UniProtKB/TrEMBL annotation:
Pfam families: CUE. The keyword Iron-sulfur does not apply. This is DEKNAAC104969. SMART domains: SMR (SM00463). InterPro entries: CUE (IPR003892), Endo/PolyKinase_Domain-Protein (IPR052772), Smr_dom (IPR002625), Smr_dom_sf (IPR036063), UBA-like_sf (IPR009060). Residues 56-70 have a biased composition (Basic and acidic residues). Gene3D superfamilies: 3.30.1370.110, DNA helicase RuvA subunit, C-terminal domain (1.10.8.10). Keywords: Ubl conjugation pathway. The keyword Disulfide bond does not apply.
Length: 497
């Protein structure tokens, strides 16, 4: 029996009850496509169920096939890794730290990318310690030689060599025989100890550690042979030392010595470091100062006992007349030099401007660090000046019953107001006790009124009298009785709490 004549809504409701799993939109579209015939719609929807079941089964089978394919492909792509080649998390982190260390040293020492492998060798043989690595590179780095032929002079050897360069020891060296010093090189066997011979200072010895080396030779032939051998070694040093000759009286060395004197932390570095660094950077004082400021905090304290007269002293070079390059200094130096807050603030602003104008990426952070240091020093000096000014104002207020807050910031003004009023009210209460009227509720006139000068705030930011508002709030909160004026208040008493 056909259902064409029935109402479309009745047919739709009937079909939707028969097929609750089919979306209503699909039922309505099927019913519309057959012209509202309910029976044909039912036949179509029965086929719809069969098609959807087939689609669902096909999708499930395809999904299982895809999973198997992915598993096979992943098994083919992943090579079999032995258990001993799998790195743990700690090993990976350690490897990343070493990579970061080499990048830091490369940027600090301006090593070219093609010499990175050689720098990695220096970092490994110094156990990835920045101080030792930098000194080793400055002293021994030779890009023309492979790693296995790089020479090695340790920091301790340099320190002892510096002690042997003391001029006051030359006389003893001339009078008594000494033994030749051992310098161990990686590519050569250790030098055997030779019989005692008399040594004398050589005029051609290169400067190291601030003093001339004492050549362990005994005759002119050995002098010539030693000089030629030494020149060959210097030629092999390559870019690090060739083309630049150390001159203790040059402007660069004078400026470098001025920087050392302005920063006590740099005194922990041996003199040989500055000599080698000047050779390595070809007299670039900015680069030497930047490297020194980075490794000086890592330098160990040198305590080498070779006798009472063998203590190391810095090179005594004359100071340069121009201002030194800004290097971080102790904060107390400004107070010792007597610089005021405005002077330090102007100096900090000047250094900050220099940092913005500088195109040298190694010089910019030095200026910025010095500017921050000057800013901190200026703040400390300001606080010291504020405390001294507040103390003098409190002493004067004790005698005059009046305090002037001009020149103080809000915090110091409120603290001074608290101390001054406390002292004033203590005198008032003592006067009442001495006169037997401390229980009266009316205002006692034993002590003069206390006057507070806050100013009108004309010079404050936005013209707002910040000190006056803060003092008024304090007086109200602590139950003081006062009369407000244009430039301050007059405190006449205090209410019972």
């Amino acid at each position: 029996m056909s259902q064409v004549g029935s109402s479309p809504e009745e047919g739709f409701l009937k079909i939707s009850e028969m097929f609750p799993d089919i979306p209503l939109g699909d039922i309505r579209s099927v019913l519309k496509s057959v012209g509202g015939d309910v029976e044909r719609s039912i036949e179509e929807l029965l086929s719809y169920n069969m098609i959807e079941a087939e689609k669902t089964q096909e999708v499930a089978e395809r999904s299982r096939d895809d999973d198997k394919t992915v598993q096979v492909e992943s098994a083919e792509l992943e090579p079999a890794t032995p258990d001993d080649e799998i790195m743990s998390l700690s090993e990976i982190q350690e490897c990343l730290k070493k990579i970061d260390f080499v990048e830091q040293a490369q940027e600090l020492l301006r090593i070219k990318p093609e010499n990175r492998e050689l720098l990695e060798y220096y970092a490994a043989r110094n156990h990835y310690k920045l101080f030792n690595t930098v000194l080793d590179v400055l002293e021994n780095f030779d890009p023309s030689l492979p790693p296995e032929n790089q020479r090695y002079i340790s920091y301790k050897t340099l320190a002892m060599e510096g002690e042997m360069q003391r001029p006051d020891l030359e006389k003893k060296a001339l009078e008594s025989p000494v033994k030749k010093m051992e310098i161990v090189e990686d590519a050569k066997p250790a030098v055997q100890e030779e019989p005692p011979i008399t040594v004398r200072p050589a005029a051609h010895s290169r400067v190291q550690g601030g003093y001339r080396l004492i050549a362990p030779l005994s005759n002119d032939e050995n002098d010539d042979a030693g000089l030629q051998k030494k020149k060959k070694k210097e030629n092999r040093r390559g870019k690090a030392s060739a083309g630049y000759v150390i001159n203790a009286k040059s402007d660069e060395m004078k400026e470098l010595q001025t920087i050392r004197r302005s920063n006590s932390a740099l005194s922990r570095l041996p003199d040989s470091f500055f000599v080698d660094a000047m050779k390595f950077f070809h007299g670039d004082v900015d680069a030497v100062a930047y490297v020194a400021s980075n490794i000086a905090p890592l330098a160990p304290k040198r305590r080498i006992n070779l006798g009472e007269s063998a203590r190391e002293k810095p090179v005594d070079l004359p100071a340069k007349s121009v201002p030194p390059l800004p290097v971080t200094v102790h904060r107390q130096s400004a107070q010792r030099s007597g610089k005021s807050y405005p002077d330090l603030l102007r100096e900090a602003q000047r250094l900050r401007s220099e940092a913005k104008r500088s195109n040298d990426r190694t010089l910019r952070p030095i200026y910025a660090s010095a500017a921050s240091q000057k800013q901190a020093e200026a703040f400390d000096v300001l606080q010291s000046e504020q405390r001294n000014s507040a103390n003098s104002k409190l002493i004067q207020a004790r005698r005059t019953n009046q305090i002037d807050f001009h020149g103080l910031d809000v915090n110091n003004a409120i603290n001074s107001c608290k101390l001054a009023l406390s002292s004033w009210w203590k005198d008032e209460m003592q006067a009442r006790v001495s006169n037997g009227d401390n229980l009266r509720s009316v205002k006692a006139l034993r002590v003069e009124d206390f006057r507070i000068i806050t100013g009108r705030g004309l010079h404050s930011a936005g013209g707002v009298p910040r000190i006056k508002l803060a003092v008024r709030k304090y007086l109200k909160e602590h139950q003081y009785i006062f009369d407000e004026e244009a430039s301050g208040m007059t405190v006449t008493g205090r209410r019972h709490p």
